[in-house]
Amino acid sequence: MRGRRKIDLQTLDLFAQPQLSAQDTLGALARLSDAGLLRRLDSALAAFVHGQDPGAEPALLVAAAVLAQMEGRGHSCLPLAALVARPNDVLAWPREAQPLLAALWDRLPPRLEDWLAALQRSPVVRTVQDGSGKAVCNGVDNAVDDGCPLVLRTGAEPLLYLRRYWDYERGVAAHIARRTEVDAEPDTDRVRGWLDRLFGPSGADKPDWQKLACALALRGRLSVITGGPGTGKTYTAARLLALLFAMAPDAQQLRVALAAPTGKAAARLKQAIDASLLDLKDSVQGELDLEALVQRMGAARTLHSLLGARPDTRYFRHHAGNPLDVDVLIVDEASMIHLEMMAALLQALPPTARLVLLGDKDQLASVEAGAVLGDLCRDAQAGCYLPATCAYAESAAGQRIPAEFMAAGAALPLAQHTVMLRESRRFGGPIGQLALAVNRGDAPAAQALLAEHTRLGVDAVLWARQGGAAQRIAEDAVHGRGRQASYAAYARQLGLWRSDRPQTPQEHEDWVCGVLNAFERFRLLCAVREGDWGVAGLNRAVEAVLQAQGAIRKEGEWYAGRPVMVTRNDAQLNVFNGDIGIALPGFADPSRLRVYFLQGEKLHAVSTARLAQVETAFAMTVHKSQGSEFEHTALVLSAQGGNVLNRELVYTGITRARQAFTLWAEVPGLLASAIASPTQRSSGLLRFLEHGVRCSA
Ligand SMILES: Nc1ncnc2c1ncn2[C@@H]1O[C@H](COP(=O)(O)OP(=O)(O)OP(=O)(O)O)[C@@H](O)[C@H]1O
């Protein structure tokens, strides 16, 4: 937003007079948009509200604009008490904009009650009370939703919504409430027998959360399994599938689907589940035909493709009226699912089907509004298990839940269907320790770990660098540091085209796969897009270094070796948002570049002319890297990052690295301030679950 500022904030004069009319307010909001403090869309919503209600008061117009701005930053609603009392906490404007904010707030009502009254007086705002079933619009009892664009949820913490987000939250909460009702309990002796076969016996010293997750998943139609990298979420999900298969009255008829928000995450899920299931063949000794299950599951899909996204619309082919044809759906990387997508997914799922969500609750939430997995996992760390859950866990999984994980009083049914896996199997080393330190907000420990390892030299697993020109980052990325993965292997593999040119289609395919696999070993991850330390600047810098060493010959937009990331789903071309491909000469006609993608084990080629929605991918945002892992990642923190530099971003960047992690910080203090800034997205989802989902007709 700061990049779009055209006006000097110091000289911006918002108001001619102390009183604020609706017109003055709209003018001020428009000027704040010109100055880049709001988006055009934000002030446009206020103007729209005024168009619908010429009597709209300044507080309503300001609330509407801020609500739109919040939606753009991933929040599903606006907490009004915080806005009135601490506007800057909500708006997060830069220091130089504080006088403007103070001038605006001086002219607005000082008390929350007055804001609420201003909102409730307007016909554009529908007022609803949690749990009462009462809805009021324009002061009139109104159980029927007549399309008010804004919704005000009253109560101890009033929330203002754009109507569609209120609908999504309410819909998601209603589905979750239904799905977490306990069905008939399964035969616990059988469950326990199968769990012992699938997992082996467990020690008595601590609970086996993996077994517990499987047992709890049988009790309802929603199961949430969260945990950091390598804690065995996929391992557990494969065993859960085998268990469901073993317990199903007609196992051969069980329809199972796998999905994830991105194509890459979907492919990884399928690979891991297949391998895990086939590993289990011995423990099920011919009693379960797991090979047949693997065959029947088919490929994992992106959520868009599973739901049947209709191009250029918000609509899907599958919905409540045309539900998905599944009995069990496992969705990985659930932290990336935004509110609207979760609402669509839950609607499209038959009421009897089981949904299993896998994901790391501490990762970055989606760019779009909502942090659904984070919300659903609010109690995951604490457990909050009720006595009935503990009794069931003991009889079905042989697991005694320690007192510290039991609910102190009432607890959400959702918590009884949520399990956090706590032991990482492949992430215990320095990278894991660093991730844990970041996650618990311990900046000194994170910095000490980085400093200690950096001292070990260029081969160190952790490595921290500070300041200097972005050129240094690019050179490091291309030439590598020590023995850690870099783009050097990719450049070497690319060079084989000239020194050892493929002579047969098979050799060509092997070479293409070699380039793609070498490229996947390393990645530069940025917090921001713009600037020298952002995606755009670093892509240019890496290209310049590769060009200088002769690895690429960049003459136009496309060149042999250009790695690209697809930025928009294109079902016709069979490429999806987040897919990474590399432009390379074809075998039959080397003068024409084709972009090659690895889809599972198979190569997929698309002509460069047909791929319009792509961007160069030597550097990518941390957001776009979710669902991927690399041997070595270098996380680049730009001084321009502002409040994008937060704890979840750093944690997500670190946990993309399997063997080595490098941190580049443009100025001192960026890491510590990011760690000190956990993201809090405003949402009312859990409140719906706490109060019952009855607040509207
Ligand atoms: N109970 C277990 N016993 C033995 N090995 C296990 C167990 N749980 C997990 N593993 C192994 O640990 C590794 C990580 O497990 P898995 O890939 O399922 O973790 P994950 O949480 O899905 O990771 P990611 O977040 O990266 O997707 C795998 O090699 C898996 O086989």
From TrEMBL:
Pfam families associated with the record: AAA_19, RecD_N, UvrD_C_2
Gene3D superfamilies for the chain: P-loop containing nucleotide triphosphate hydrolases, RecBCD complex, subunit RecD, N-terminal domain
Assigned EC number: 5.6.2.3
Coiled-coil intervals: none
Domain named AAA+ ATPase: residues: 219-468
Binding site for ATP: G227, G228, P229, G230, T231, G232, K233, T234
Reaction equation(s) it catalyzes: ATP + H2O = ADP + phosphate + H(+)
Keywords: ATP-binding, DNA damage, DNA repair, DNA-binding, Exonuclease, Helicase, Hydrolase, Isomerase, Nuclease, Nucleotide-binding
Matches recorded under NCBIfam families: recD
Family: Belongs to the RecD family.
Subunit structure: Heterotrimer of RecB, RecC and RecD. All subunits contribute to DNA-binding.
Name of the protein described by the UniProt record: RecBCD enzyme subunit RecD
Native organism: Comamonas terrae
